[in-house]
Amino acid sequence: MEYVEARRDAVEERLQEVVERVDTPRLREELEHVVLAGGKRVRPTLTILACEAGGGDMWATDAGPKKPLQVGADGDLALDFAVGVELAHSASLVVDDIIDRSTLRRGTESAWARYGHGPAIVASDGLLGEAFHLFSADPRALESVSRALVELGEGEATELVDQPATEAEYMELARRKTGALFRTAAELGAIAADANGPTIDAFGEYAERVGIAFQIRDDVLDAVSDAEALGKPAGHDDQMERPSIVRVTGQSPETLTEQAREESRKALAALDSIDMDDGQARTYLEDLAIFVVERER
Fold it and tell me: Which parts of the chain span the membrane according to its record (predicted)?
């Protein structure tokens, strides 16, 4: 785990640097509350691992497992992209919590519960602004992220207005709502590594499948876990009458978890199609595809 933890630490350090650069003290406080309160950091870690697996010069050669990681030639760009993905994701969570009237996020008060609706919306805007500043370093990054956020917005609109009634409709919702941001996270890592188009697409396919598996597992956990275990309100899908694969299909948690595993297997197949060395980054990408299904929160 030291390998992944070192990379998460590097993302965390860059996150703090980006937030500390925000000029307005109140906005900076709100952004700190949203993005520095913890989280699994799955998406930014995915960006870093995709860059490394895609052949990017991510870290300097003298960086050892117990030494602070020294950023290599491609690493600075990948770290900025990773932080941008986490900021964009956090911005979407701020809005989600307002829509859901959820007062808890990552074991602490949600942004609107602490600061009010107006400041929370401003914080969401601020997060997106900082994210797009980071993505502006490469037109391919801007294109990937813009496409993902359009998909995310369409997914949120579908969830609120035209709720899915069939499993196929739900899977399309999961692809847009969660898979799209996972896809761009991996694509950004490959872009930072200056990978070719087919390789970028293959990393995106892998990550989209991982995102769908993540969303299925999220729905199952919401149905079977409690708030203390999750770090956020449980049973929220039923209370808010929001679409989840549990509600749409009526299938058992065990059956749905197996469906998530099938998405994970498809993700691994996409990863296998990429011509890359069998290094630690690839190993941890494989582990991530399994983790998102087996996690308990």
Answer: none
Spatial CA neighbour of 151 closest among 88, 77, 237: 88
Q: What is the distance, to the nearest Å, from the Cα of residue 285 to the centroid of all Cα atoms in its chain?
A: 14
The radius of gyration computed from the CA coordinates of the chain, to the nearest angstrom, equals: 18
Judged by DSSP in three states, 19 sits in helix
Report how many domains make up the chain.
1
Task: Please identify which residue in the block is written with the tokens 């993540």.
Answer: 214
Is the pLDDT assigned to residue 130 strictly greater than 70?
A: yes
Nearest CA among 52, 108, 109 for reference residue 77:
52
**What's the Cα-to-Cα distance from 254 to each of 119, 218, 237, 294, rounded to whole Å?**
41, 13, 18, 12
How do strand 108-109 and strand 104-105 relate by DSSP bridges? antiparallel
Longest dimension (CA), the chain: 54
User: Does residue 16 have a pLDDT over 50?
Assistant: yes
Q: How far apart are CA 185 and CA 44, in angstroms?
A: 7
Contact predicate 21/27, CB 8 Å? no
More confident position, 91 or 163: 91
Share of the chain above pLDDT 90, in %: 70
CB-side neighbour CA atoms (13 Å) of 203: 34
What angle separates helix 180-192 from helix 42-53, to the nearest 10 degrees? 40
User: Is residue 43 within 8 Å of residue 90, measured between CB atoms?
Assistant: no
The domain of 29 spans 2-294
H helix intervals, the chain: 2-20, 25-35, 42-53, 75-100, 111-115, 117-135, 139-160, 167-174, 180-192, 197-224, 227-230, 236-239, 245-249, 253-272, 280-294
pTM: 0.90
Six-digit token string for 83: 């932080």
275: domain CATH number is: 1.10.600.10
